[in-house]
Description:
0% helix; 4-stranded mixed β-sheet
Amino acid sequence: MKKGAVLAFAAVFCAGAAEANEIDLSVDNFSRDNKIVSAVIKLTNNLDEAVSRVFIDCAFLDDNKRAIDIGNDIVTRLDAKGYAYGKASIVTDKKVRYADCRVKSFSR
């Protein structure tokens, strides 16, 4: 498969907030490059203060929405009312159809 080719999938499921919509999360891109499956994640800080060490977990799921593996990322700084991108990846031969991502935690 070509590098950066977008996988066909029905939907990408995301946990939308860390705590009461303090940080919004969306999956902007979902791709496979050989055996590496990646989700590019956009985080939006809805707070009036910067946050740091935003821990992201993504479960990569098969057709039956069963977890194949988990990838994670850490965004080191997210400015007040700003946004940043992260990327979670796994290496697998299995067919990944969905990514279920959430903000695990962050520091103020």
